[in-house]
């Protein structure tokens, strides 16, 4: 892979910074970090790298940043409002720059946080999820596949689940909750955590770059082990010298969405998006004003509930904790040759080891 020059879009994020670090230090690839501003280079500045500055919504800037590269790895961790726009613009920029292949980081959440049994890459997708992020990733995948039909840039899409490792929000957020006594598990923590250690995900990216059959392929990737959320919390707790006896075990809460949330969901739906170009500007402005008036009125967050002992239960965590399915990565194994080289126990060991390095207290 060293002969290829690889532009890494979103190189300052959790996965991006680890990918650049790992491939540069091991000499595995000639990487070019592409970040939004100079401040985003803080962690990567210790390396002598051919970095570039480009905004995720600037096609011309990305075209210049990708110039001379064979591969683009799009790892942008963007807000749902710009995920689709960035996907489209980055593909067009790659096309203009003469890039051979793009690897796009989607998410297993296109199947929902608690997918149905039997879900795999062939399962039909929809944009009626309660989370805007899920819908945005679905629309981004569709837009990219449509562009690939007429474009020359090859395309591979990866769908990881819970990506963890040192500096991951999943590790730090749960550690903070455990230390503050606000950690909770739904359904006794028996739900499946579709985990993937960050280095395993980076291995999947590497395979996606050069396997010819990966073009126009979509691949779920994950760890080998079947991990429950209780397992996940227990391991982080152990790294802090705690146990899970103080974790709050809760039944699934009921979340009710009001008019504002329903209107936002309708606005984000694929049918509404398809109709937007046909709507006169004046009418668009009037509708936007009405929506703003409705959605800006103060009200409790529909995405979290206050339950016993003042705990804030988020709808995302609640849905994830109720997952009963370990998503399969058989297709990635067969087509890409993917095999997770870092076991879950080793990955969690490295992750909780980082907690001490980062200054988290050890309670015993």
Give a concise summary:
The chain is of the alpha/beta class. The protein is built from 13 helices and 13 strands.
Explained architecture:
This protein starts with a strand and ends in a 7-residue tail after the last helix. Helices cover 42% and strands 14% of the residues. Helix 3 packs parallel to helix 4 (132-150). The protein has helices spanning 14-26, 59-66, 80-97, 132-150, 169-180, 198-210, 229-239, 259-268, 270-275, 281-295, 315-321, 330-336, 344-357; strands spanning 5-9, 30-35, 52-53, 71-74, 101-105, 154-160, 162-164, 184-186, 195-197, 217-221, 248-250, 304-306, 312-314. The strands form 4 sheets. The protein has a 7-stranded parallel β-sheet with strand order 3-2-1-4-5-6-10, with helices on both faces. The chain has a two-stranded parallel sheet with strand order 7-9. A two-stranded parallel ribbon has the order 8-11. Strand 4, helix 3 and strand 5 form a beta-alpha-beta unit. The longest helix is centred in the middle third of the chain and has 19 residues, at 132-150. The relative contact order is 0.14. Among the domains are: 5-169 and 194-224 and 326-343, NAD(P)-binding Rossmann-like Domain (Rossmann fold, 3-Layer(aba) Sandwich); 259-295. By secondary structure, the chain is of the alpha/beta class. It is globular and about 55 Å long.
